[in-house]
Amino acid sequence: MAQQLQQGLFLALAGVAVVAALGVIFNRNAVHSALSLLANFVALAMLYVLLNAQFIAIVQVAVYAGAIVVLFLFVVMLLGAGGEMQMGGWLNWRTAFIVAAALVLLTLTGTAVFEGTINGAIGTATPEQIAQVGQTEAVGTALFTDYLLPFELASVLLLVGMLGAVVLGQRWRGAIAGRPSGEAE
Amino acid sequence: MIIQSIWLAIAFPLAGLLFNGLLGRRLGRGVVGIVGPGTVALAFVVGLFAGLDLLALPAQDRAIVVTLWNWISVGSFRAGMSLLADPLSVLMVLVVTGVGFLIHVYSIGYMEHEEDRLYARFFTFLNLFIVSMLILVLADNYLLMYVGWELVGVCSYLLIGFWFRRGDDPQDPVRLKDGELVPVPANLNPADSGKKAFIVNRVGDFGFALGVFLIWTTFGTLNFADVFGAAPEIASGTVTVITLLLFVGAVGKSAQLPLYVWLPDAMAGPTPVSALIHAATMVTAGVYMVARSHALYALAPTTSLVVALVGVITALYAATIALVQTDLKRVLAYSTISQLGYMFLAVGVGAYASGMFHLTTHAFFKALLFLAAGSVMHALGDVIDIRRMGGLRQKMPRTYWTFVIGALALAGFPLTSGFFSKDEILAKAFEFSPILWALGLLTALLTGFYTFRALFVAFWGSARDQELFDHAHESPGVMTWPLILLAGLALFGGILGLPQILGVDHALAGWLHPAFADLEGEGAEAIHHGLSAGLEWGLLGLSSVIALLGIGLAYWFYVANPGWPADLAVRFKSVFKLLVNKYYVDDLYDLLFVDPGKALARFCAQGIDNAAIDGIIDGGARLIVQGGAWLGRLQTGFIRHYALAMFLGVIVVVAYFFLR
Amino acid sequence: MTAVPTSWFLLLSAILFVIGAGGVLLRRNVLIMLMSVEMMMNAVNLTFIALSRHLSSLTGQIFVFMVMAVAAVEVAVGLAILIELNRLRATTDVDDVSSLKG
User: Fold this and answer.
1) Model-level pTM?
2) Which of A8, B105, B315, B588 is the most buried (most CB within 10 A)?
3) What is the span of the domain harbouring residue B52?
4) Which tens digit of pLDDT belongs to each residue from B199-223?
5) Where do the domains of chain C lie, and which CATH numbers do they carry?
């Protein structure tokens, strides 16, 4: 019973995610696209819960839905890019080719999946063990022990990204970055 | 014992070379002029003490090997940086450093008009030459000798081309009595002359190198003592080939037929260089090498015959060319070739000590003649054409009298040094074969003639070019004193080797005897040659008569009857032209080797390098530029195209992973 | 326990990825292209999480964590570039920005 419930839930969420994804790329209005993106992210977060990854689901909502989509919305507002649908010529050979390629990719992936070629070493993080310590603690422990270095590097990456965004967003008064100010005056 | 430190003889000029080469420009010519000759004088002193040390040793022990360090040691191949001090090499050291010192001193005056840096460079090169020559003569193995052999070649090249900016020196044509103008070939410019010397020497050096290789494969060693010790057990054919190959090197270095052509052109260098390198020392390296390898040559009678024949033919041949040369230095250059021919005649007939004796006396009188000629050039502002001189004996008495002494020695005037050494060679040649002796005697006649022709034309008579004559002046003491010292040596150098019939010991042969002791009948005892006393007196007298006859003929032609040579030139016009053009040998070599070589070089430069190589390179570059332009069209600048390419790449990668 | 098969998630992930890729390729608005890139990343994240469960390993989740960090940086820098571009060229159309053309 629980299985059918979960499968039903999956199908519903998957439908929401796909529709929202299509909404992102086919909306004329960029604000609508951003909102569709939000729906897509939330649906995915719920799917994560379905996959027993509650911590990641929370992070997904916080980072993507909370930060990134809001950022997109800010920029949309700033540039006023809500307007007509800006799309390249639709019915041309390129589109046809892309659709065909997409189908090929889908077929390849699907075939591979259904033939069960995806396998690997089974780890120790079974749901039972995770249940003993709790999902957040399990991920946190892994993050701060085995993956400490990538974690720290990620923080450096974020810092660099932040600096980059600040530098790029700064308004240079007629000067180009790197030139002495005296010369620019 | 200073002989253990014989390397000092090399080290002193080496130090002078480094000092002058590195600091000379800054310290000025005063210091350079002291350091250059001073270090050579020190080397001479070292050589002198080494000689005294040798005398103190018992005769059979007079061969000291001083190993400085192990130079090459690969497998069974050993080449030591080791020096051999025996009577032969010490004699050469004394000649090289002694004459070299005087010429260094002379150069102080001769080069006084050069810029400071050229002045320092000149002494640097001269010291380098002394170092190289000492390495050559002191080496105790063929490899080190070859190093010195090549180094002196380099020095020769550097010094011939010392004034490398000067152009060709066209010569005034000879106007014959019937009005015909006979063009005289131009003197090559110094840079080309240096190249010519170097390249022609390369031909000989190639033979020498092959000889050394063959020695190595035959004997398994290059050490003189080991090679000579093992030589008697080697097949005589091999020894003949080895000695012939070594002789090819000697032919190149010592300017014998057919590789003599570089020496006359080497006169483009400064005159002290001509005196030191192209008369007194370097060109005698071939004679020294043959004398050093006498153990091999004694085993190869065929080669020895070849050596003697080449020597005597060269002697006669060069003497005939010298008859008509109008360039004072070239007269001397051809006489050098001729005298070297005598030396080869001597070593070819097995009279090694006689060859070394003539080498020594020749070093004295030929250096003297060149320096005197240089003094004339110095006085006349580098004019060297004897047709423009005349009457100089009043203006330059010291130069004149020293030149006379040198000319007497060269002509073999009785009791001068050249008389004794040449007579000794002729006596040995007579013993070997009267034909060789006759050719040698004919050469002696020509020698007396052309030497005094130059002397009479240049110094006697009246001034032909009044402007030049007024400009002429005696050279400074720093130039004339070396002349006077050399004149003394040229005059009395014969004491070193007085003939046995005079009842005195042959000093030089006695000194060299330990070095040639392994030869039967050679050395001091060999002076008691098989000729009877009467015959020997006869030969001596005939030599004297011939020398006097040559001188007398020159007087008759150029002083008593100045019109005769011109008449003769008209009567034997074709011979005259042949001699003026040096038998057209240079033209023949140009035709046979130089022009095809240039054509090949031009083909390589234009056909292969410009067309093919550059074509490939440029074509490659054009291909890349074109290809880049073509590929550049792929870069549309549209991000979506890049994204598409990425996407397709992803598909390919995924497909690879799933389908493999 | 695994009520929903892993393959379902993988299939969904593939569909979402292709939709995102299509957005990147077809839209000319840089903003929409960036959103599509985000969607593609999310599709990959879904794969990671699904396989993390399938293989009982937390590594997949850690990966997702890192992807999120990169995505955040990418959006921040990307949008900053977009603003600067808009300031210079007054456009958000990528086809107007082709100065890298060879």
Assistant:
1) 0.69
2) B315
3) 1-140
4) 999 999 999 999 999 999 998 888 8
5) 6-93 (1.10.287.3510)
